[in-house]
Design goal:
Helices cover 37% and strands 14% of the residues. It is of the alpha/beta class and 188 residues long. It has a five-stranded parallel beta sheet with strand order 2-1-3-4-5, with helices on both faces.
Length: 188
């Protein structure tokens, strides 16, 4: 039996054009199995979540994000660490996708988390804070392998290409594990 193609929504927690998170997301998609297709979700244009805007016509960007999440089979979160946590833009996207109450777009979508840092900690705090939110919005998140990418400037060239062979191998192994995780989660 052929492996089904799974559509993965990619949510990058950094808005900077040439962010290391966006470089990591691209590197992950390049080494992923062909059974996974990827769509980057725009989160930089989302107004801050405010229940007062949750009317019969909520902001178009909220509706777009929710529909894209619902149309995906799985979720890949790639985030830098800001102040030992996740960036506000990512927290806002999680809020927008989980509302209005009873209409959680994230619900039961299998996910994976990659965190990074320009320091040696690899975004440990961001990774675990994000996982706490994902538990609440019911995203079954791949536990192993863990993906904390430290010292990111050393891993990419000036054009954002991954130049570190060990990181490439780690991402390739993780992408294969993620594909298997998605298949198991989708069979439930």
């Amino acid at each position: 039996m052929a492996t089904p193609t799974r559509k993965v929504a990619v949510i990058v927690g950094s808005l900077r054009k040439n962010s290391y998170s966006s470089f990591l997301a691209r590197a992950f998609t390049e080494v992923a199995p062909e059974s996974l297709t990827f769509q980057n979700l725009e989160i930089g244009d989302l107004p801050f979540y405010n229940e007062d805007l949750e009317t019969s016509t909520p902001p178009e960007s909220w509706t777009r994000l929710r529909e894209q999440i619902k149309a995906s089979d799985a979720l890949l979160f790639v985030t830098p660490e800001y102040n030992r946590s996740i960036p506000g833009v990512l927290a806002n996207a999680i809020d927008v996708g989980s509302r209005p109450y009873g209409h959680n777009a994230w619900d039961k979508k299998p996910g994976a988390v990659i965190s990074s840092s320009i320091s040696s900690l690899g975004g440990f705090g961001a990774n675990h804070h994000l996982r706490q939110s994902l538990v609440f919005v019911n995203v079954p998140t791949m536990q192993q392998p863990e993906l904390y990418i430290p010292n990111t400037p050393e891993r990419f060239d000036n054009d954002g290409n991954l130049i570190d062979a060990s990181t490439r191998t780690m991402l390739k192994d993780a992408a294969q594990a993620f594909a298997s995780w998605i298949d198991r989660a989708c069979l439930r």
